[in-house]
Amino acid sequence: MNYHIVVFDIGKTNKKIAIFSSDLKFISKESTQIRDALIDGILCDRIPELNAWVLDRLKSISKRYRIGVISTTTYGATIACIGNSGELVFPVISYMHEPGEEIRKKFYSTLGSAQDLYLKTATPLFGQLLSVGMQLFWLKTKRRAEFKKVIDILFLPQYEGYVLTGKKAVELTSIGCHTYLYDFHGKSWSDVAKKLGVTKRFPKKFSNPWDILGKINPDISNCTGLPEECRVSVGIHDSNASLLPYLLAKKGKFVLASTGTWGVFMFNHQTSSRLRRTGGSSFYLSPEDMRKDTLYYIDAFGRPARSASFAMGQEHDHYSDMIEKKFSIEPRKLKPDKNLIKKIINSKSCFVTPTLTKGSGQFPNSKPRIINKEEFFRDAKSAYTLLNLSLAIQSYFAIRQALGHEANQNIPIYVEGGFRNNTIYLNILSTLFPNQNVVATNIQEATSLGAAICGKCAAEGIQPEDIDPRLIKISEKPIKNLDIDQKLIQQYISEFEEHCSSL
C-alpha cells in the first residue's frame, strides 16, 4: 500500500507534525510552540490556536503527500468537556493550574484518603491538576451549573481526533495515566469515576489506540484538500507511544528510561507483545511507593507498566545554567573523566541534592541545595560531573522503584531522549548498575513513531504485533561502566540519601 502517515505529536509547549511512509520510515517534521494562557484567571491550553495550526499544516502537506491516515499522540492529564452541540463547555484546562489546598482537602474527604486511592488507582499525590479526577471534581464543585451541560468527556488525543472526524472514543493509555479514574484491581472504572458520575460521559467501550476512530469530516476534507477516505486512528498517550516501538522490537523484560524535562522509567514485564491484555507488571503498591513517585501506566496492549519518575531535565538545566554563567562555558559539551568521578565518589564531600519540584521524585521531602559549594564551583568539569552524578543516583533509585520486586535482576536499561547524548550521565549510570546492560538507544522521533505504528494499523486493518519488527529501527550503543569500587559507590549513595533526608 502506497500512502503516508501524518502524526500530530502534541507536547505541552512544542507541537509537532511528522510524516512517515507506510513502512514507517521517517520523512519530515515541522514544529511550533503554543504555550498555556490565562483565561478568566484559569491556566488553559490554547486549543483554538492548536486546532488552527493542525488544519493549516494539513492543508499544506496534502499538496505534497498522499495522506492515508492521521494519528495523534499527546501529553496526559488533559480533557475536553463537550456540550450538546459539540462545543467546549469549558476551555481545556492546563494540568499546571493550581486549584488550591481547599479543593484538594475536600476531594480526599469526599472520595477517599490519598493513600487508599493511590493503592487502587496508582495515582500519586500530585500537585496542581495533574490528575483528571481532581480536575473533574474541581469543575463539578466550582462550576456546577456549567458542568451539568457536559455531555461528553474526551482525553486530549481523542478530542483532536473528534475535531477531525466528529467521532468519539476512549482508550486505556489515557485513562491509566494517574487519573484516579481507573481501578487497577478491577480493571475498569474506579469508585472515584463512579462517585463523580462521569462514567456515562465517556464513550461506552474502551478502544485500542490503533482502532479506526473514523474518516475525516467532509468539511475538513474540503478545507484541507485531504481525501475523504483518509482515516484517523483513536490516538495514544505520549509516554506509551514512546514505549510501543520497544514492545514490538525487543524480546524479554527491560526498563525504558525516557529522558527529558521529566525522566520516566517504565518497566516492561512482558516477554511477548502477543500476550494482549494479559500479563503485565504485577500490580502492587505500598504507602512507601506513594512517597517516591511510583505509579503504573497502562501500555498500548492494556497491561500495567510499573514506573517511577523525577524532574531530571529541569534540575539539569537549572544547574547547567549556573555553571555556564559562572565559567562562561557550555557544560553539555564536557566529556567524562574517570579519575575525577573516582575522586568525587571517594571524597564523599560534595553533593547536589534534589528536588526543585517540591513533593515530587524519589526524594520528595529533600531540600534542593549544593553541599560544599567551594568544591562544586572549583571548575566547570567538577560542577557538571557532580550534577550528573546526582541525576544518575536519582535515576538509580527511580529504576529500582520501577523494577520493584525485580530490582536485583539483570534486566537491561534502554536510555532514550535527551540524556542519551550525555556521556557523563550515561557512564555514571552504567557504573551504578554493574550487572545490567545500560544501552543508549536512538529512534528517530520515538514518540511519533509509536503513534505512526497505531496509524499504520488503522490504515491496514492489522494489529501492532503483525508489523515486521525489522521496520522498527532502533540504533543501540552499549555504555561501558567505569570500573569503580562498588563499596565506595554505595557509601557515596548512602551519604547522598542522608543529605536528602536531613533538613
UniProtKB/TrEMBL annotation:
It comes from Candidatus Desantisbacteria bacterium CG1_02_38_46. InterPro entries: ATPase_NBD, FGGY_C_2, FGGY_Carb_Kinase, FGGY_N. This is Uncharacterized protein. Residues 5-244 form the Carbohydrate kinase FGGY N-terminal domain. Belongs to the FGGY kinase family. The keyword Transferase applies. One of its GO terms (biological process) is carbohydrate metabolic process. GO terms for molecular function: kinase activity. Residues 253-455 form the Carbohydrate kinase FGGY C-terminal domain. Keywords: Kinase, Transferase. It comes from the Bacteria. It holds the Pfam family FGGY_C_2.
